[in-house]
Structures are given as C-alpha cells and as structure tokens.
Amino acid sequence: MKLFKYFFTILASLLIFSNISLAEKWDMALAYGAGNFHSANATEFAKNVSEKSDGKLTIVTHPGGSLFKGGEIFRAVRTGQAPIGERFMSALGKEDPLLEIDSQPFLATTYSDAMKLYKASKDEIAKSLESKGLIFLYAVPWPAQGLYSKKEINSVADLKGLKFRAYNSATVRIAELTGMAPTKIEAAEISQAFSTGAVESMITSPTTGKNKKIWENGVKYFYDIAAWFPKNMVIANKDAWDKLDKSTQDLIRKEAALAERKGWQLSKMGNKNDKKALADAGMIVGKVNATLKKHFEEVGATMSKEWAEKAGSRGQKVLSAY
Ligand code: PCA
C-alpha cells in the first residue's frame, strides 16, 4: 500500500510537471493605450492564439506601456524579458535603416503604395531582425501623418522656431530642415508635453491626436500632409519562439497574417473617421498651402538622398523592388 502511494505520487507529479512545461504563457508588451486600434487588434490576435492553441500557449496583452514603455519594448523582446511585443518600426533606425523606410516623406502617400513598400521591404527587415534574435510576425500602419499646431501655419516662416514633438530620427530631421526645434517624445507623454508648453506642434496621425484629445491641450490646427504611413510591428523573441512546437508556431503565423489584414482595414477606417473626430471636437482640419507643400516635398527629397546613403545597397535593393 505504501509503495502504491509512493508510485502514485511520482506519477501525479510527473503529469503535473509535463503539463506545466507544455503550457507556455507569453506576456505581450504594447506601448499604446487599450483603446488604440493597434492594441485592440493585438489583443484580438492574442485571444485567438490563446483560444486555438489547445492550452499550449496563452498570450496576455499589457497595453499602455504597463509592462514596458514604448522606448523599451524592442530591447525587452530582444533580451527575452518579454517574449513578444509591439514597437513603432521607424524609431529603430539605429538598429537598421530599413526600419525607417516607411517614414521617408512622400515615398508612399497612399495605402496601396504603403502596402507595396511594405511588401518590398518585409523580407529584408525580417532577415535582419532574425539575425538579432527576433521573429517578425506582422506590421500595421498608422493613418497618414499630419501636422498639428497650436497656432495657424501659413508659411515656412510660421514654422521657424516652433517647439516640435518628434517621434523618430526622420521627424527630427524634418524639423531641423525646417528650422523648428525638435524634442523626441514617446506618444505616452504627448498630452503632458503640450499642456506644459514643452512643445507646440507635432506630426502624427489623426488617430493619435484623437486618442490624446489633443484639442484639450490648446492644439487647434491639423494639416493633412499625408506624406507617409509609419508602421508598428509585432515581434517575438527567437528563443521563446523556438520553445514552441511546430503547430503552435503555425497557428501564430496564421493569426498574425489575419491580424495584419484586419489592422490595415482598421487603419484605413481611422484615416477617415479620426480626422472627422478632430473636426467634430472643434479643431480646424485642412491642408497646407502650396508653398508649404513644396517646402515639405523639398525636405523629403533631401531626406531621401540622406537615407539612401545610410541604407546602402540593401536600401537600394528594396527601393528598386518598390
Ligand atoms: N502615432 C504614434 C506613431 C505614429 C502615430 O501616428 C506617435 O505619435 O507616437
């Protein structure tokens, strides 16, 4: 009887142990608020994977930078502190200039061109991420980027000296070539930066302005420049990925492809609806005048040259494919 109990205990602990080692839990780091369409989409992706993996993998999302802040997520996933996360690609130009290709002004100004550019650059980007121990899963663009300002902008002179919130090296460069004074600030700190007067202008999507209720911080004008569609990407740590069995990896790939399709749709909807939301909140929504447009196009041309030099032959390859 004693022996039977002994064997039973061993058998039970073996079963429990093997169950635990089979069931993985991934915490997913998201920088943007739960209400943001990127976060909502990632949450649906996580839910679908969790429900369909036969208990083998549960993905728990942590929106609003609650696990890691935007600026920390890439490193956290790379080092395995978070097995999966989402990051704004073009903030990572120092890791790989190809990650900045979607923030080059006037290279892709429509969703269909943005998709073409994505397809042309995706494999090269995924390859370089893999060499850093990362698995690329999917990418979704923000709606077209526009210029926000507390005061009216009618000329290049009106932009001179403006305290400008930048979110990557490309927006810093736009500011420099325009005579604005840029400071890099993550999306989470936008409201504070405007309300304290640290900044008075920025270029971002109508979605981010709407989510931040930017009109409550004295921002009255939105100029729809629509010069690029920067993307967020979802990446996983390769060691964590390699621990999963083939069917779970296939499931993630399948759900990632679905999330990507849905994400692009949501982005397109936001591109229309969120501009309307800004106008409904009393902001003045319009286009820049012809002189300003020409100015931004010239800035864009300078930046294209600079970027091509930085990105070298890999960049050239992607640009010709595009
Ligand atoms: N919103 C993010 C990135 C691009 C966008 O539309 C931000 O402003 O930080």
Task: Give the tags.
322 residues; alpha/beta; D-Maltodextrin-Binding Protein, domain 2; 6-stranded mixed β-sheet; 11 helices; 17% strand; globular; binds pyroglutamic acid
Write the SSE topology.
Elements: H1 2-22, E1 24-29, H2 37-52, E2 57-62, H3 70-79, E3 84-88, H4 111-131, E4 134-141, E5 146-149, H5 156-159, E6 163-166, H6 169-178, E7 181-184, H7 190-195, E8 201-204, H8 206-211, E9 221-223, E10 231-237, H9 238-242, H10 246-280, E11 284-286, H11 290-321
Parallel strand pairs: 1-2, 1-3, 6-7, 6-8, 9-11
Antiparallel strand pairs: 3-10, 4-10, 5-8, 5-9
Pyroglutamic acid binds next to helix 8.
Task: Give a description of the structure.
This protein is α/β, with parallel strands linked by helices and 322 residues long. The chain has 2 domains: 2-96 and 111-141 and 231-270, D-Maltodextrin-Binding Protein, domain 2 (3-Layer(aba) Sandwich), CATH 3.40.190; 146-228 and 275-321, D-Maltodextrin-Binding Protein, domain 2 (3-Layer(aba) Sandwich), CATH 3.40.190. It has helices at 2-22, 37-52, 70-79, 111-131, 156-159, 169-178, 190-195, 206-211, 238-242, 246-280, 290-321, and strands at 24-29, 57-62, 84-88, 134-141, 146-149, 163-166, 181-184, 201-204, 221-223, 231-237, 284-286. The strands form 2 sheets. It has a 6-stranded mixed β-sheet with strand order 7-6-8-5-9-11, with helices on both faces. A 5-stranded mixed β-sheet has the order 2-1-3-10-4. The longest helix has 35 residues, at 246-280. It binds pyroglutamic acid.
